[in-house]
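Revision sheet: structure tokens.
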Amino acid sequence: MSSIRTMRAVGLALTAVFAAAPARAAEDVEAAFKGKTINFIVALAAGGGYDQYARTLAKHLERHIPGKPSVVVQNMTGAAGMRATNWLYTIAPRDGLTIGITQRSVLVEPLYGTKEATFDPTKFSWISSLNDEAFIAVTWKGRGLDSIRDAQEREFAVAADGPASDDYIWPAILNATIGTKFKIVSGYTGKAEERLSTRRGETNGLIGWSWAALQASEWDDYKAGNWRIIAHLGKGHHPDFDAPSIYDYAVTQEARDIFDFLDATLSLGRPVFAPPGIPKDREAALRAAFDETLKDPAFLADAEKQKLDISPATGEALAERVARLYRTPPEVVERAQAIRKQAISGAGKP
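Predicted:
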């Protein structure tokens, strides 16, 4: 009888231990963040879409993180997002107190074998994607660039950041696959400078811009008819604007395969991540905080006021999208890489 009582006592004690474990784990996570500052690194310049999303999010994020740390946004520009992405992978502290957002096209660089890309995207701690992107080709009124057909017939200068940016890769790919004659003028430090170059007439538009970013930063001029969308850089007709799909111009299987590859890149949206190897409980806490923030009525009202599209993906889903991208057939990646290298050798500068 005494042995039975002993076994029951041990069982009760173990039950108490296991029941207390989640509470202690939650306390440990809260202690890790309480009174601290989370540095939110934006890999692109202030004034662009990524920066606007990050700053709007930061205002609401801290109240959803255990311990309610402050969240400070910092811009770390260079190489179209490559500098900050490398830093987040190799140098940033791995304690959950540093997170970042980068241009999704940068995440393809290791797949291309770019030696300057010292990171492995499959090893980042993926936190969230803020939206599914619709990408567009835009021009300013009166420039003679009224359709992709126009660009197949004569040269038009278009603005770009660096070789890793969407607005560099897309015109390069279109030149090689469907015969457009875009002259890529690169070296701008962000979308704000690129938009200004088009307004001034230095360039004729941007080929590879986010529909959400246009709504956030240029809505009045778009509604006035100054900015014009000449193509949807995705499959099918987009319900929010009237423009043909770039797939409508793809007459070869190679073009369609490469467009599919770029579409897989676009599925990464606006990706938020932490350095690899952060503690799993802090990764889980950050993922939960982002999920909660992106449903927060106050945040959504703020985002709607700024015309920021919010259609998030979880950290788990984002990690799978990265893994899918890195399963792209090598021959498709090699062809896309060859096209880009050719474009880089002939690109101009402002």
